[in-house]
Amino acid sequence: MAGHESHYILPRPVFDTPVKLLIVVAPYYKDIADNLIAGAKAEIEAAGGSWDIAEVPGALEVPTAIAMADRYSNYDGFVALGCVIRGETTHYDTVCNDSSRAIQLMGLQGLCIGNGILTVENRPQAEVRADPADQNKGGGAAAAALHLIALSRKWGSQKKNIGFRPASEEILLAGDNDGSPTA
């Protein structure tokens, strides 16, 4: 059983300037969501960060809210939380796959997102995974976001003079001090 395996956990990142995260949660199963939130908040606070919470109706709306927040606010990262329990129809597969895919695509575009949307077969599995004193998947999602923020700050501050420059930039570099091209 996965809950009894030993896993390596990266040390908590340290930040020179505080981080601010948005926890986006779908509280469809309120008790499970509350435990996920508790774990996420504790992890963020332990790293010296702050957080806001946004609630959305379901797991499919979590990525949309994250995209909106990225567009209209100034968060360093995001924690996606919710729970999808398998039912009698294929709707479970759609919700799990599409919410995960959207979060992954935003991550590939540079957003720092920890995905803590549980996808489980039954309620007992969700309860164990959400419990901050047990598997603490909310805390794990927050930790993932914090690690990605640390990497983005590390790599975002490195300016390397590699790659290609657009032709318009080459013309400016070859010009006089006023930026006009020289003959």
From TrEMBL:
Its EC number is 2.5.1.78. Pfam families: DMRL_synthase. The keyword S-adenosyl-L-methionine does not apply. InterPro entries: LS (IPR034964), LS/RS (IPR002180), LS/RS_sf (IPR036467). 5-amino-6-(D-ribitylamino)uracil binds at residues 28, 59-61, 83-85, 115. Gene3D superfamilies: Lumazine/riboflavin synthase (3.40.50.960). Pathway: Cofactor biosynthesis; riboflavin biosynthesis; riboflavin from 2-hydroxy-3-oxobutyl phosphate and 5-amino-6-(D-ribitylamino)uracil: step 1/2. Catalyzes the formation of 6,7-dimethyl-8-ribityllumazine by condensation of 5-amino-6-(D-ribitylamino)uracil with 3,4-dihydroxy-2-butanone 4-phosphate. This is the penultimate step in the biosynthesis of riboflavin. This is 6,7-dimethyl-8-ribityllumazine synthase.
